[in-house]
Every structure is written in C-alpha cells, then in structure tokens.
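quick one before i forget lol
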Amino acid sequence: MTLKPAPFSNDPEAIAELIQCDYSSKITFEMAKNQLNTRKIRIYCDGIYDMFHAGHARQFLQAKNIFPNCETYLIVGVCNDELTHSKKGRTVMKDFERYEMIRHCRYVDEVLRDAPWKITPEFLCEHKIDFVAQDSTPYISGDCDVYKDVKEMEMFVATQRTDGISTTDIITRIIKNYEIYVKRNLLRGYTAKELNVSFLTEKKIQFASKFSGLLETIQNVKSEMTKKWFKWTSPAWVEKSIKYDENQLEELLSTDIGSSGDHL
C-alpha cells in the first residue's frame, strides 16, 4: 500500500468522495451516536493551524473518533493568509505551508484550502458536511460566536482543547528566549538583516559569544594545568604520606601497648 498525503478538496480523489456521498440521507446526532448511519459521516474542522503542534493533531484525533465504531471522513478547512491577517493578525507560517502540514496528519482525509471565516448552511450543503467539530469554548469574532448558526442547526460536536500547548504558547517561548535563538542563528550563518536585528544587537551577541568561548578555553587550560600539576606532584606526596602514616601508626601502637599494661 502506497502512503500519500490527504487530497485537497479540488483533487479528483476528494471530488469522487463527495459525489458518492448521498447527502439526501441526513444523519442526526442521535443516529450517529447509536451507529444508525448508512454511510460515512462527514465531519469538518476549521482553523488557522499556524505552527502545527500536538494540540491541533489531538483535535483531529478527537474529531475522527467523535462517533466510535462509525466510519468517518474528516475534512479540515484552513483559512488563507489574506483572510487570517484581516481577522486575526499575522501568522508565522504562510498559508501554503499550513495547508501542506495539515494534509500530512494521518487523521485527516481531506484539506479544504481558503476556508471561510464563518460557516453558512450553503457551505455545509456544498461540501455535504454532517457535523462541525470544534472546541467547546465559544469562538468570539466581532460580536458573536462564529459557530452560533451551526450550533442552532444541531450540527456542532465539541472537542476538548489540549492544555499547555497552543501557537501563542510557542511564540511566547521564542520571545522569552529571543537572544538564545538569535545567537544560534547568527552562528549558523544568518545575517542580522535576515533576523531583523540591529547592527548593535548583532555585535553584542557576537561579542558575548566570543567572550564565552574565551572563558571556556581559559577554564579548559586551567583544568589541564591542574591535572598536570597533580600528576607531577602526587606520587611523591602520596608515597611520603603513606610512609609517614605507617611510622606514626607503629609509634602509636608501641606507645599504647607500653602504657596500657594488661588493660584491654
């Protein structure tokens, strides 16, 4: 069996899957819960998925298994850069990079590029979606929950957010250790311009790196000199010490025996 990434929605494989789905046969939550579905359940997740991480993968895993023992088909919609930047702000990764990351997750069956910000009934029908899986916490954009209409249509199924990991958390870690990562990349050959750091910052980090290297060299030389000193001086000192201890022990024993009599 040849493994390959999930198709995009306009690829022949995804189109064939869409055509063969009999969407006139509606699947309700109760039907899916009780395994009364007569076809694959088409589940949809959407998001930005910047800097794809374990929390994203766990969401897809939950969505894929939201109805145990039922055959599901997971479609993941990813918003493009233009829409994301206008609604949420800059991303670290470009949209084509985010598309490509998602289609290589083993839980995903299909990737929808240029996903809409808000899901409409028309969009659900066009892609023959049975349920939308997303975090249970309302996603407020503007004045209302983006998934309000889907919830009212009883087509929303909740997944749980993974604690301790998010794109924001990862970016925060990078900012917190900013100089460490800048130093690492400068040493790997990146220029100050490529890293968007000033000339002074570049020289400061380079100087600190060279000074640290100098200190390490001095410490290594000092350590080697210490080892050599012990090598040169220890044998005679140890031999003299052992001889002294033996003589002292003999003297102490003879003195003790002579003064103690038969008292033991």
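fyi The chain has eleven helices and seven strands.
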